[in-house]
Specification:
Shape of chain A: flat
Largest interface: A-B, 43 and 52 residues
Strand content of chain A: under 5%
Strand content of chain B: under 5%
Structural class of chain A: mainly alpha
Radius of gyration of chain B: 24 Å
Oligomer: heterodimer
Order of helices and strands of chain B: HHHHHHHHHHHHH
Helix content of chain A: 55-70%
Structural class of chain B: mainly alpha
Largest sheet of chain B: none
């Protein structure tokens, strides 16, 4: 009797363990970092923020207080307002650069591989050429040729990171074209273009999105480096790199003016990189992490 | 024979890339409105006849092909033109700046490589120690701290809070910052590679024979990771060029980075052209060297 009861109990549906809906700690940390880094940008959207360009020559290098939560810089400009304005310059430029790199690298790579032959050879030779010029040098050239501005910087970022996307396209293309199901599709009379469109392209989307997640923080860092070196969007418009460069001459009087953009940049880069790394591991659990 | 073929192929490829870069840089800078003579005419008094004579002398008359021929001929005899702002030969300016950058980059890279190898080998030998955590930490550091931010932080800490002045013009601080960055890029992938190599059957045999773990790590595991280390190193070295530029600007070192940045801000195009070319040749040489070494180290790649 007792045995039958326990057998029935065993057969009864086991109450499902409550699914733990807690975020994995690494993901939570990454999201927290990104959130913290973007917080000044969100605060900057609130009404009543001071003008990031407005100088107050009676309040130079003021430490943080009620009127200026992050203090003022060497020209008496509000650091929080400048940090916020910089967020809305750095983030869109980084995203724009990543999208341009993906479009140029994947688009031209895919097109060249579709056409094949000499075109593919020429396109990939051009990507090799771009790879040889480090991003900073490319930006230097675009700054000299096109001047300062949003577009030269975005173009430099796009050109610098396009070869990575082109390489992913080439690898995936070679892998898919050699696979059995593509051979089968070809045997069934599917044309080259149809194979590319229906079989290769869908398999490319995952790797391309993963690579974008990895390239975005690099674009943001590169943009900041360029601004820091005076090769960025504009010497007048506040950006994080520019703020660091401006405030670097006054570290003794106003360490807060240099620390604020440094912390924002570090937090954003680290958070986005962790997210990118997680995306990569999720997309391709077999591949070892950290490989270029 | 095999070695000669590998080296010859790599050299040929490198030469092609350098020629292509020279052409691209030349064409790009030709699109900037105004030439040397315009700038000089704006600065001083040159009449039309003098301008024409100067253009002829500098090879700026005639078509694009003529100009490129003139420039390439001068280039092949080691002349890089004249600086617009300083009137000095560019080759001379590059020659004074190059050793600073080379020495700086070499020290930073050596530090990074030694640190990464020590950490990764230590971590694979002592998986329960703090070393694997240290590898992870240094990797995160290099991601979160772009070198110019780390440099700025160092200036803050050393000059402001510790009072160790002056940091500007000081060499060890930027070398350590760049070295740490490189170690962070190399150590983690190297550790993954070493871990994988540790699991190989021949390593298990070596262990079963009772070989000393250090000997196994150095003689049996490290060679398997060499191709990956080479590939990573060449990427890190190419990235180092951007790093040295920011460090030179931040710490006031008179290297190629400072030279080219000042030239960009002063629109000194011949200097920009020359430095970009020199740096690009450097990257091509690094890549070609790494490629040759990798092919020679991994016999599967040559066949």
């Amino acid at each position: 009797m007792d045995g039958a009861a326990s057998a029935a109990a065993a057969r009864a549906p086991v109450p499902a363990k409550p699914v733990r809906r807690r975020l994995p700690p690494r993901l939570a940390a990454a999201l927290l970092l990104v959130g913290l880094a973007l917080l000044p940008g969100l605060v900057g959207l609130l009404p009543g923020m001071p003008d990031p360009m407005e100088q107050d020559l009676l309040a130079l290098n003021m430490p943080p207080d009620a009127a200026h939560p992050l203090g003022t810089d060497h020209l008496g400009r509000d650091v929080l307002a400048r940090l916020a304005a910089g967020t809305w310059l750095t983030l869109p430029t980084g995203i724009g650069g990543t999208l341009l790199a993906a479009g140029l690298g994947a688009g031209i790579g895919m097109l060249a591989l579709t056409l094949g032959g000499v075109v593919a050879g020429a396109a990939y030779a051009a990507f090799d050429l771009l790879r040889v010029l480090p991003g900073t040098l490319l930006a230097l050239l675009t700054a000299v040729v096109l001047g300062n501005g949003v577009w030269p910087v975005t173009l430099a970022l796009g050109l610098a990171y396009a070869p990575l996307f082109a390489e992913v396209v080439r690898t995936a293309h070679a892998r898919e074209m050699a696979s059995d199901y593509v051979a089968a599709a070809r045997v069934f009379g599917l044309g080259r273009l149809a194979v590319l469109w229906r079989h290769v392209l869908p398999n490319l989307l995952g790797p391309l999105i993963t690579l974008s997640a990895i390239v975005l923080p690099r674009c943001i860092v590169t943009e900041s480096v360029l601004s820091f070196l005076g090769l960025g969007v504009s010497p007048e418009r506040p950006s994080w790199g520019r703020m660091i460069a401006d405030a670097s001459g006054f570290v003794e009087d106003a360490p807060h003016a240099v620390l604020a953009p440094m912390l924002a940049l570090s937090a954003l880069t680290l958070g986005l990189s962790l997210l990118g790394e997680m995306a990569r591991r999720r997309a391709d659990p077999l591949r070892r992490e950290g490989r270029p | 024979m095999k070695g000669a073929l590998v080296i010859g192929g790599a050299l040929l490829r490198a030469a092609g890339l350098v020629a292509a870069i020279a052409i691209v840089v030349f064409l790009l800078l030709r699109t900037v409105p105004g030439d040397v003579v315009d700038v000089m005419a704006a600065q001083g008094d040159l009449n039309a006849a003098q301008q024409a004579a100067l253009r002829a002398e500098l090879g700026l008359d005639g078509g694009l092909l003529h100009q490129f021929g003139h420039w390439a001929a001068a280039l092949s005899s080691g002349q890089l033109g004249q600086s617009l702002r300083f009137g000095r030969p560019v080759a001379e300016m590059v020659a004074t700046a190059l050793p600073v950058t080379l020495g700086f980059a070499a020290m930073a890279f050596a530090l990074g490589l030694v640190l990464a190898m020590a950490l990764a080998i230590g971590a694979v030998l002592l998986p329960r120690s703090v070393l694997p955590g240290l590898v992870e930490a240094i990797n995160l550091w290099s991601i979160a701290m772009p070198t110019f931010v780390a440099g700025m932080g160092a200036i803050l800490v050393f000059s402001l809070w510790l009072g160790w002045l002056p940091v500007i013009g000081n060499l060890p601080v930027p070398v350590v910052i760049l070295g740490l960055d490189i170690a962070g890029q190399l150590a983690k992938p190297l550790l993954e590679e070493l871990r994988e190599a540790m699991a190989a059957p021949h390593v298990r045999t070596a262990r079963a024979k009772g070989l000393h773990p250090v000997r196994i790590a150095l003689a049996h595991v490290l060679p398997a990771a060499l191709p990956v280390l080479l590939a990573l190193s060449s990427v890190a070295l190419a990235g180092l060029i951007g790093g040295t530029m920011t460090m030179e600007a931040l710490f006031g070192l008179p290297g190629l980075g400072s030279l080219v940045l000042n030239a960009v801000h002063g629109r000194d195009l011949p200097v920009v052209q020359a430095v970009v070319l020199v740096l690009a040749v450097g990257v091509v040489a690094i890549n070609a060297g790494a490629d040759v070494l990798r092919r020679l180290a991994d016999s599967r790649l040559t066949s």
